[in-house]
Amino acid sequence: MMAVKRRSSHDVLLSTALENFYNAAEEMGLEDDLIEILSRSERRVCVSIPVEMDDGTVRVFDGYRVVHSSALGPAKGGIRFHPQVSLDETEALAFMMTWKCSLAGIPYGGGKGGVCCDPLELSLKEKERITRTFAARIEPFVGAWSDVPAPDVNTGPQEMVWFMDTISKIRGHLDPAVFTGKPVSLWGSKGRNAATGLGVATCALELLRVMGKDPKTATAAVQGFGNVGSFTAKFLHDAGVKVVAICDITGTYYCKDGIDVNKAMAHTQSNPKKLLEGYTQPGLEKRGPEEVLFLDVDVLLPCAMEGTLNKTNADKVKAKYIVEGANGPLTPEADEILKSKGIPIVPDFLANSGGVIGSYFEWCQNLAGFFWSEEEYNQRLVTIMKSNFQRVWEYSKEKNVLMRRAAFMVAIKRVADAVKMRGVFL
Ligand code: GLU
């Protein structure tokens, strides 16, 4: 067979994800036909979403649902609402979900969805109408054994209930296992809402451990204070790490004695836009939103959007370690710059896999109709995260590669073996 012709894209996230995949696949000596199969998505669904706005006008939004691979099981991955959503971005995120689920050791393939919209400009009713119309449009493609969506940027338990309710009404029966990330009162799991942050914090603590640093003397800066960033900060704080800065679009909130994370979380809960605006505590300094990235801390945790650290700002990073809470927070240029500074980086699809592992627990509970305690849920999650971190850490030492490459190699192997055993058909 001729050498594989590499796919590329104008979308930074997609081209980066593909490049990382091709490089790892080549280093492993993966067969060309497997590289060809795994570099493409199985299914890309694009829909229009006409919605009547509160003022009576009609706006049409674009929505996407991509399944990259179903080799290991039903596709799994969130649905985001954001103005940057595009087909290429969704495909990149679906692609990364395949490696995330594989690395996590759970029986899922990779998928992702999104609607291009700005939730900050939408009323609750408008969000509900977008969610339900999108659900109806993608209904033929989702299901507990085909493709199981979940929350992502700007979506949460409420949106998941609207999705589940719409699908259940179309199908004429309750179908709880078709969406994860639901509220505890409606077939959700105790622990799921905090699961991604618990996983990110566990990886950060594991990294400190292998680096020989006592968490009680460590400092951290968390960028982004949505679901992932806020719970990450909370669990680090609970473990004794001093979280000196948190941040959202309204600015960086810095306190050298440590942020009172529980108070900050309560503040965002009572803010109508769930923002930190107006948060205060003794000794607090407010700085620009980017400042959080350049603090002299042990661990920097970018937990917001992709491309946060890029060629324009990566050289200003002073943190000793980076744990990627968001999906794709480093551009390839930033990755190179930070590599040359010798900063260890825990890659996103390992660090933030607590969310999808937690979703797996919820799906199991839904299919069994039997729920676990929050304690059991968290214990199982932490055990899996620790052993996954350990596996990637050891593999990176054994192969003398960085953690991102090691994680790709472990993840690709499991999916490639599944494709080989199942054979090429459809
Ligand atoms: N949106 C999360 C992620 O990017 C969770 C996905 C899921 O639970 O399916 O991993």
Automatic annotation (TrEMBL):
Key words, A-Z: NAD, Nucleotide-binding, Oxidoreductase
GO terms of molecular function: glutamate dehydrogenase (NAD+) activity; nucleotide binding
State any GO BP term from the record: L-glutamate catabolic process
What family does the entry list?
Answer: Belongs to the Glu/Leu/Phe/Val dehydrogenases family.
The Glutamate/phenylalanine/leucine/valine/L-tryptophan dehydrogenase C-terminal domain extends over 189-423
- Work out whether the entry's keyword set contains NAD: yes
Tell me which PROSITE patterns the record gives: GLFV_DEHYDROGENASE
What protein name applies here? Glutamate dehydrogenase
Site note Important for catalysis, residues: D152
Q: Where is the active site?
A: K112
Instruction: List the PANTHER family.
Output: GLUTAMATE DEHYDROGENASE, GLUTAMATE DEHYDROGENASE 1, MITOCHONDRIAL
According to its UniProt entry, this protein's organism is Acetomicrobium mobile (strain ATCC BAA-54 / DSM 13181 / JCM 12221 / NGA)
The positions annotated for binding NAD(+) are T196, N227
Listed binding positions for substrate are K76, K100, S359
